[in-house]
Amino acid sequence: MTGQDVDRPSHALAADLDRILGDPLAKSGPFGFAETVEHEERDALPPGAVDLLRSWGFARYLVPEAFGGGLRNLEQLFLLTRVLARRNLTVSVMFGSALLGVNPVWLWGDEEQRERVARGLLDGDLACFAVSEPDHGSDLGTNETVAVPDGDGYLLTGEKWPVGNATRGRFVTVYANVEGVGSSLLLLDKSQLDEGSWDNHPFVRTVGLRGHDLSGITFRGTRVPGGCLLGRPGGGLAGILQVLQITRTAIGALSVGTMDSVLRTALRHARERVLYGQEIYRIPVIRRHLVRAHLDLLIAECTAVPVARSLSVAPSRLSLWSSVVKYLVPTLGEEVVAEAGRVLGARGYLREGVASGVFQKLQRDHAIASIFEGTTHVNLHSVASQLPTVALVSDRPARDGNTVLRDLFDDAREAPVWQPSGRALRLTNAAEDEITRGWEPAVARARLIAGRELPPAEAGALTKVLDQLSVLRGGFYARIAAGTLDATTAEAQDAAAEHCLYHAAASCLYTWLYSFEQERTAPAGTAWLVLVLQRLLSRLGQATEPDESLLAPVEEVMLACLDGPEHFSLRAVRAACRPV
Predict the structure, then answer these.
(1) What are the respective helix, strand and coil percentages of the chain, to the nearest 5?
(2) Residue 483 phi/psi, 5° resolution?
(3) Residues 506 and 438: beta-carbon distance below 8 Å
């Protein structure tokens, strides 16, 4: 069975890829930590790693079904990327950079462009997104790369740097100022360009992602064939902002995959390392680090996966939701990495030893997650700029909100097949935010369920944390709605970060309501929800520790995942709740 079996459910497909890539702790194999770290020292990828992925068919999931590939929806690619990222983030970023480069083609390309790029990717070619310039970084309003009309094509002059896959990529989506129409996106095929009119820069030496092609490309009057424009002439900046909504969401998979590996590495060490006559997991502070890391991973999953589903359920919401994911999930990932580092102590600093010394690589690689596709500050600015509109309607349930929320949060349902269309993505959310607006009805429903189905102590704990969050949340949105918020201020950044926590809390609650209908009364079936909400409450500045009376069943699931086939995930929690 290979990745060619595209009709399988997304989780089954991800499980097959996980099996093919093998045990990361294996002493040999291109996706084992031992070979990964060994070749990392040489700024190289393990031999055979990319070939193994291509033989399985990973490239098919960069090409939508509508254009001859296997990509059904973004959730599917999220799950596959999570599997890959828990082994080697560098390889994941290589394919992620290719996805970024070709998404404009899927959204706005003509039939010939889509067919040529799809065929190339399926044959093993890569792509890149040439937007950044050395002197301008994320200032996309400044674009010194110029395309001058020349016959039925253009002459392209300018420099793009740094760019993922700039050297290895065949296809290049370039952001250029087209004379007479303004900044636009152009699709280039290197095989069609005149030799000597362009060249690539050497790979940039980076702290992490060693072996990744992060380089650049310079054009010197390069003749570009006609028919290369993507989307509306002059609409390049808007197109970039729309394309980034997709990849910002997908980056969450890099963080969740990294969280899985660092938690697994630290937890295994804590169970095997003996000090003071006992395994160090029994030391309260060590246990606390690991429990917190596990809860943060569950929060990240609850937040990211539904937004991945939204590309084919409610794509107009991505202008806000993708920035929430891009800020919050890598931030949680950084904290999980830090918690794991505290458990490993000195061994976390070594390039050998525990798990072949992979922790230091994971730590260095994951640092990129908060930087590319818009830094933390860029994404918080995006959230802040839309927050006043959202706050005005935060207490008004959205029309058809229950339908949208079930489509997003019911894990038993496959997300619809994505039909790529640039018209479906918007630059602002226009208050269409079922996740924010559904909180109060969801809390009312949760209270009813608690009173009818749950033991008194558990019902009381759930009701208490929901009430605490409701009070904080209500006051927050009332203040935003009543005031003015300048998205460029530090105050606005703080407000945006707080909104992301309320978004996450709502996402956790909806996951419980829609995906745990059959498991709520099991020992871990509601305990996990109370614990993650308490964790979020503590992040909101409230002195809250996990409820020890509810921790045991969730902790048992975490420990069982250490040597079992399941990732640390809510699927593992649900599986543990079902009768054997």
Answers:
(1) 60, 10, 30
(2) -110, -165
(3) yes
Query: Is residue 364 pLDDT above 90, yes or no?
Result: yes
| Tens digit of each residue's pLDDT (9 = 90 or more) over 417-456 | 999 999 999 999 888 999 999 999 999 999 999 999 999 9
Q: Where are the beta strands (DSSP E) in 225-354?
A: 229-230, 274-275, 278-279
141 residue type, one letter: G
Structural tokens at position 300: 């990240």
pLDDT band per the 50, 70, 90 thresholds, residue 156: very high
Tally of CA atoms within 13 A in the half-sphere of 428 that contains its CB: 10
User: Which tokens in the block code for residue 287?
Assistant: 């246990």
For the chain, where do the domains classified as CATH 2.40.110.10 start and end? Answer: 128-230
* Distance, CA of 440 to chain centre: 27
Nearest to 214 by CA among 225, 204, 229, 222: 204
For the beta carbon of residue 467, count every other beta carbon within 10 angstroms.
Answer: 12
- Which SS3 state, helix, strand or coil, does residue 204 take? coil
State pLDDT tens for residues 455-478: 999 999 999 999 999 999 999 999
What's the CA gap between 11 and 59, in Å, rounded? 18
> Residue 414: how many CB atoms within 10 A of its CB?
16
Structure tokens at 379: 């994404």
CATH topology of domain 10-126: Butyryl-Coa Dehydrogenase, subunit A; domain 1 (1.10.540)
Residue recorded with tokens 């991505």: 318
**Cα–Cα distance between 495 and 335 in angstroms, integer?**
20
Distance in angstroms (rounded) separating the CA atoms of residues 421 and 428: 17
In three-state form (DSSP H/G/I as H, E/B as E, the rest C), the secondary structure along 207-243 is CCCCCCCEEEEEEEEEEECCCCEECCCCCHHHHHHHH
The dihedral region occupied by 72, where left means phi > 0, alpha psi between -120 and 50, and beta the remainder, is alpha
Phi-psi region of 353 (alpha: psi -120 to 50; beta: other; left: phi over 0): left
The token pair that represents 502 in the structure block? 């309320």
Q: pLDDT digits over 522-564, tens only?
A: 999 999 999 999 999 999 999 888 899 999 999 999 999 998 7
**144: which DSSP letter?**
-
Inter-residue contact 74 to 103 (CB < 8 Å): no
Query: What is the mean predicted confidence (pLDDT) over 221-229?
Result: 94
Asked: is 128-230 a CATH 2.40.110.10 domain? The reply is: yes
Dihedral angle computed from the Cα positions of residues 486, 307, 258 and 12, in that order, rounded to the nearest 10 degrees: 180
Residue 155 has phi, psi (to 5 degrees) of -110, 120
| Element housing 266 (H / E) | helix 236-272
- Contacts of residue 54, Cβ cutoff 8 Å, sequence gap at least 6: 124
* CATH number of this structure's domain 239-577, picked from the four choices 1.20.140.10, 1.10.10.10, 1.20.1600.10, 2.60.40.420: 1.20.140.10
- For residue 1, the model assigns a pLDDT of 39
Provide the pLDDT confidence category of residue 3 given band limits of 50, 70 and 90: low
Are 86 and 568 in contact by the 8 Å Cβ rule? The answer is no
Reported residue count of the chain is: 580
Single out the residue of 533, 578, 528 nearest to residue 550, CA to CA: 528
Which residue shows structure tokens 């500045």?
541
